[in-house]
Amino acid sequence: GELCANRTKFTLGSRHFSLAVPPQPSFVDIACGARRDVSLALRETQTSTEQLQQLSVLALETWPQAGFHWRVAHSFVPLPSASDVDFTHVVAPRRGEQNGRVVDGSPQSRARCIQALSALGGGPHTKPIIEQWLTVLVGNDLGRGLAFQLQCEDLSHFVRRLGNEENTLHDSVSNFVKHAVARLSAVGESFSTKELSELVGALARCQVQCPSLESKLHARMERKEILDDAGVIAAVAYVRTYRKLGILRETFLREALLKLKPRAAAQLLPHTFPENDLSVAHQFVFMMAIQGIIKGVEELRPRDVSALARGVLSWQGREFGIEQCSRLLQAVWPRLTAVLPYLGSQELVACLQAYWWQMLHNQVELSVTGMGDSTDHKAATEELKTKLLWPILSRLGEMRLRDIGKTLTTIAPPVHCEDVLDVDQRLAVSGYVAAAFPLGSLGETNTSAEGDWWDDFWSAEVEGLSTPELIDLVCGLGEADTRQPGQVWWTMDLLLEDLQRRLLATHGDARKSKVQPVELTHLMLVRMCRSMHLWQHHQVEVVLKHLLSHKDSLTPLPTPYYVEVLTELCKRAVPNDLTVRVLSDLLDTADHGRTVTADQWSDVLIATRDFECHERLSERVLQHLIPSFSQMPLDVLTKSLEGLAARPPRGQHTGGYCAIARAPLAVADAITRVATAPIEFPTLVRLFDSLSRLGWYTEKAIVPLLTQCMQTRLEIHTPQLLSLLRSCVSSRVHHAPLLHRVVTWYKWCCTYLKPHPLPQAELQELVDLSDLLCDLSFQSLELLESVTENLHNPNASSKQVLMMLTVLARQSHFPQEFREACKAVCAASNSDAGDLASLSPNELVKAFNVHLCAVFDGPAALKSFLMEDEMKDFFQVHTSQKWYQQQDRERTVFLQSEVYTALMRAVELEGLDLTLGDLGEAYHVELVSQTSNESAVVCVRSSEQLQWYVPIMADGAEGDPMRNRCLQFPFLFGSTVQKVRHLQARGFKVAIIWLSEWNLLGEEDQRRYLRDAVGVVHRPFSPTREDHFYR
């Protein structure tokens, strides 16, 4: 990204977005700035002891823990020297003076240094220095160490603070805690219930056993004393740790809960969720805590809000807690937005996780049940983004790596519902990530981020992550990655290097390396598949391949995650056999009881539409979908059909009980059921398109779709008109009243709505629409006038002009502008740089119609014009090759078919004067008269025969206007209409063999059918052109 004055501009592929991402300092800039602040805050000292004490005071009293100043401070820990006099003074329990400087060697001062050093942690360079300090500061000599010098009150406070540290305690500090236990056990009765509970908890976190203090805590709880707020929190925490459920039912505790103050209730909430089975008593405490919070929301402080968020997170996965958590979060929302600037990174993440989870749950519930107001939900979602998400992302650079990973994981695209962040908002997330971690090398980012301090700081940040957390962080950055190929990103490179080191345990020889086990969550596996581009030649690639290659590894995966993994694999460059294995495992487990919804099957089919991974995928999926069609809602039915249409079943069965044979009828029943209510026009077109691509034409399905199309206003649905006509062509449906409505509206749009002259994109739409109407043999003078007007459109390319000429020629419409356009096309064809040099075979076939239709249907002057050398070279010679190749191909297919054998046998037995049509004619004709050109037999395949025909006069007519005329008579469709018309123009008496009827007959009936067809001269049925002339 390029950080501008007040906006960040990003480029992704061919799309450009300008996103309102305020300028913000990067992670490196903040680290370097914090280091300068620490350096300025430390006054000049002569001894390492003074520097250590000064640093400890600043760390504990000035800087917020987990803040940047705290995290860079360990690089200022001085190197201890055994010869330093002041170093001895620190160990001694007294105050000493050296060169006029006072060194505080009291136990309290040493304890403060130990606490600061334990919290600072350190990296590879500073950690050994810190360990040296801790060893001497503690002084674990039995009876003389620091644990025996501090006052019991100070010792208790010190141990509780150590128990709250995230870093692992040094051995010397652990020994100090063990020595402290002996002293504290003797005075346990002097502590309050809250202090005793916190002390026992801290010792447990320090992995130090203290039976004596635990017994005192048990005894304290059994007294059933009336507790203050702190005692209530301690009691509930005690129940959670030791599973003493009976205390929650005691009257003294419930009375204390009624008096609980809002702030104490917020601090209580994280302790209310049990580690074991949930009971009614836990629910009661939870409800009382919520009630206490809601009645005094305005009293909450930042740390109370963060504690509340942690408590909500523990209850959100429980059915009982979801509704209550939603009520609580809604009540706390105004207070959260007020205290948001004062929250630390951990607290920000907890709040984001709680609110984002609730928002996603509400969205899933809304989509599944349909209950609730979607408008209110969208408004709440946008408010959540504006007031919580974007402010948190603007502080991404000041967070710890762990918190950055959690933030990006929280807002990662979900699996169970649609992503609430659109494309532009996802790019905005990428903008915030790029601002926190700019692309390029580290030296280009900030020249101050060099030397041992930076290596130590970065190592400490990364080592603070567990391997799953590191994977989550890499995946989060990968999802926000906007790099161009070959561009460097120092952050990703360093993280991948550390991840490689963790996963790969080398034993002297790389060939003996082994993969260390890593526990992955379901979402983590999905995100790793989404970020597959990051793992090339990385050890994660080995881990994933190993995992996905074993069927048992994916069996526990819930179906939504299984489908998402498969979908992502189909998008990525992975070995085909791996994707086939995962898909096969899904099908096998579905056959053995795994529940896969119709929506999920649709996702599988759509994902694998361009992936030749399974021979019978659609057929096997159909077996699971057919029982569900009768109950599917409209949106699921539409998506299921689109999924099937993405991979149409290869086999075609017209009978039996197989899935392919039953599916069209099942789908027709489903469409009839959902069509009882009005359906939006785009959905109608999607259903029609899916049926046409599947080839599942049934009267029962077509009638309700066409009926609703006729009842829909087209004003706002112009983009779907082309899709509707394509579906009509694919299904061989000629519904003239509907086509009339489409053309009338489109012509009105061209006249009053579209710019003049039409731009190239709009012009291509006109060409495509006219071409589709030609295939349907529907002619409109109004549309032909629009085509004629655009022959000289300055925005039209030569190819578009040529395609408009083919439309006019196929419709036998030759205006004066036709000849001038032909000249322009011929002139353009002489240039190798024009688009006419790259015509496809199909376009060349269509272009030959200009010559062919002019010869048969055009005026004599036009025929003479097109026979001039320049015109002839292009329209006859250049375009004819592909046309005649197509005719030869049809002739070859006919000669190799059973129809040819049956026809010739019938001709011979009946003694008819018929023989095979001549090779090289403009049209392939199956049979012609041997002695004269009187008769021509044309075989019409099913694909050349309409399945539905309603004439234009049916609109508004009495009776049944939707009656399909194809039920009484067969009608020609497509290019066969033109073929028969031109044969009749040559003087042939055309006899039609409808193969849909012929193939059902026996030999005797076929002989009679051929004899009657040749003997009776009639005009084959086709949509009559006269019906469609209108103004």
From TrEMBL:
It comes from the Eukaryota. This is RAP domain-containing protein.
